[in-house]
Structure formats: structure tokens, C-alpha cells
Amino acid sequence: MSNGPAGHVARSTVRPHSETTRRTPLRTFLHTDDGVTIDSVYDPASVVYDSSRPPAGDPVFVVAHGFTGDVDRPHVRRVVEALTRYGAVVTFSFRGHGASGGRSTVGDREVLDLAAAVRWARELGHTRVTTVGFSMGGSVVLRHAALYRADGEGLEGLEGRAGAHTDAVVSVSAPARWYYRGTAPMRKLHWLVTRPEGRLVGRYGFRTRIHHRVGAPPTKWGRNPVPLSPVEAVPRIAPAPLLIVHGDRDGYFPLDHPRMLAEAAGDHGELWLEPGMGHAEHAAGDELLARIGDWAGAQGG
């Protein structure tokens, strides 16, 4: 397998916009900037575009799944199928998940995985990218948009990473801050990522390999610095449009999380509080996904 530059395919160089392959799904491994292989899938749009429209103008969604998900999970594939009605879709398994390499850092280094997927989407000919993240993926799309900016004003030495920026951001069921333990599901998740026996459950029960130095405040295990938090990232996303979606029955993150994010976003962000909705992909119904597709299309570009 090739050790090419980040975001380049490790196998398959087929381009989707040729006459014979435009409607054909692709699957490949990408390389991140830190050398992790990421299992990635491209699904072309199911809509039929006007033949006079340049293929490079077709929109693409890059979908970032939640913790313990991967590209083959039924709830992830359902999201992909819904969004292909509004554009092509790139999805991928985060590091440590499914067939991807590496170990999960639960939202920290995962921005590199998303950057590789966005870059691949642009290499395939798409010029308008919307990132859509759920739960952990929702925090990743926020941090990614702040760190990889079209104007080159990103942070943490990521300026100038050509082609890795997004044009619009949708964050669903995301936390606002790190190390949150205020609900029973989050206390269980912290047990999963911080305890050796929990990481065994993650590996063999959920096909998720978790790095042993995640999940606890850095003062307990010497990590420095703390990653940029989602709420700190949000003000740096502008001028890219931002949509924050959260269910009022989310069992993981209560409503103070989306409200903190929306307040930090100011005028450039939009908040949808969804009545009766639970958490992440499992709770995102077809009607909500259709509205997300419509919102992305309305952002122009």
C-alpha cells in the first residue's frame, strides 16, 4: 500500500466524473497527515443533473460519524442514502474504527481524518463541500472548520493545507466542551475510554480501538496542550455558514451544549432544536436529513 501524501488514495485512481464512472461508488484508503490509513467511501448523487451543468460544480457532503460508528454501520449508510438526494457523499471510518488504522482519540486527532476526506472530495472534482458530523463527529466538524480555513487563518500550524477546508458545516448532537460527565451515558462512555477493561469492550464489542491516553483531563496523564474545544472553535468558523442541530431528548448532551455553541457562533450560526429527537444518527429521521440537505443547498457556492 502506498505511503502517499495525506488525502491521496492508497488504491484506486478512478475519477467519478468520467462518462463511464460518474455514477459508480468508490472505496479506498486515504492517508492522513500523521500517516494513518482511513477507510473511505464515495457515493455519487442519486439525482440527475442538467447535462449543461459542469460536474465539478456538483455539491458533496462529507459525513463524520459518531463514536463506535464506521462506514458500514446501517445507521451511517441510512444518512448517506438520504443525503445522496442532494449531492454526492464521502464518508469514512475515523481512526480506530472499522477497517481504518490507528486508535481513536475521541475527537482530537480525528480532525486529520476529516481533512483527508475533504481533500479527497475536492480531488474527485467537487468544489462545494459541506461537512456533516454527528456526536463525536459533530465536534470534529466544528474543530476542523476552525483549523482548516479557506483564508489560511487556521490554527495549530495547519494554515495553508490546500483543499482541506469546508464551505459549510452541519453539527448534529455535538458536545460543547470536553470531559463532560453530567449524564449516565457519558459516564459509561468515560468508563469505556479510560479503563483498560472498557477499552477491551470497545475493541471487541464495538470494533473501536481506543488510544490509552484519552478521556481524562490532561493533568491526570500529562497531555499538553488540551485540544481546542468545540465551543472555542465555533467563533473561528465564520464566514463559513454553520448549522447546529440538537434534539430536546438527547440523553448524552443536554440543551446547554447546543445553546453554548449557538451563542459562541453569533450571527453566522443557526440553531435547530428538534422536538422529540434523541441522539445523533440513530435519532436523525429522514425529514430532518432532508431539511439538512435543503439547508446545504441554500448556502450557494
From TrEMBL:
Gene3D superfamilies on file: alpha/beta hydrolase
Name of the molecule in the record: Alpha/beta hydrolase
Keywords: Hydrolase
Annotated Pfam families: Abhydrolase_1 (PF00561)
Keyword Hydrolase annotated: yes
PANTHER family associated with the record: HYDROLASE, ALPHA/BETA FOLD FAMILY PROTEIN (PTHR43433), NON-HEME CHLOROPEROXIDASE (PTHR43433:SF3)
Claim: Ribonucleoprotein is one of the keywords in the record: no
Residue span of region Disordered: 1-23
InterPro entries recorded: AB_hydrolase (IPR050471), AB_hydrolase_1 (IPR000073), AB_hydrolase_fold (IPR029058)
Highest taxon listed in the record's lineage: Bacteria
Positions of the AB hydrolase-1 domain: 59-148
Single Gene Ontology MF annotation: hydrolase activity
